Amino acid sequence: MRRQAGFTIVEVLIVVVIIGVLAALILPSVKANAVRVKMSEAILAFAPCKNAVNEVYQGGGDVPADGVWGCEVDKNATQYVDQVKVDSMGKITISLQGFGDLRINTHDLTLQPLDNTGSVPSGNGAPLRGWRCGSVVDGTDVPVQFLPNTCRG
Predict the structure, then answer these.
(1) Is residue 144 part of a domain?
(2) How far is CA 31 from the centre of its chain?
């Protein structure tokens, strides 16, 4: 009696279908997580300007005009950040680059200071209560699913 070794075509097809289904379910979440990691690195670009804005507001001084806070970068700030801008009320805007995804490249991410009442500070040295990150109201146009949980408005 002769025995055949190997798999039947049906068994091979079942394995291929299972791998295909798993890939279809897992790959989009892997890509989204990779973008979130890059976005977290881009959020680090907020740190110098965030400190500068905090110092001005906590010190009770007058706020500088647009673009003269001393922490702005005009071009190619990091691998994922093209430029960093700060407006006269302390709102920090970073322009993104290098993600390899047109839903994110050339878009803006914002970080807005908030006073004790939870609104945008008036600019007269009021103490800051916190920051609002990634809000559409402030000008962020990056899709929410690509923002880290700590930066979703």
Answers:
(1) yes
(2) 15
Nearest C-alpha neighbor of 51 from the set 128, 135, 118: 128
Predicted confidence pLDDT, tens digits, the chain (153 residues): 677 778 889 999 999 999 999 999 998 888 888 888 888 888 888 899 999 888 888 887 778 888 888 889 889 888 999 999 999 888 999 999 988 888 888 899 999 999 888 888 876 667 888 999 999 999 999 998 888 888 887
Asked whether residue 123 is assigned to any structural domain, the reply reads yes
Q: Count the neighbouring beta carbons within 10 Å of the beta carbon of residue 70.
A: 11
Sequential DSSP letters for 28-88: HHHHHHHHHHHHHHHHGGGHHHHHHHHHHHHHT-PPP-TT-SS--B-S--SSSEEEEEE-T
**Residue 43 tokens, joined:** 């959020």
DSSP three-state, residue 105: coil
Structure-token pair, residue 46:
């907020």
Residue 116 included in any domain: yes
For residue 99, give its domain range: 36-151
Per the structure, the count of domains in the chain is: 1
Beta bridge partners of residue 91, listed in sequence order: none
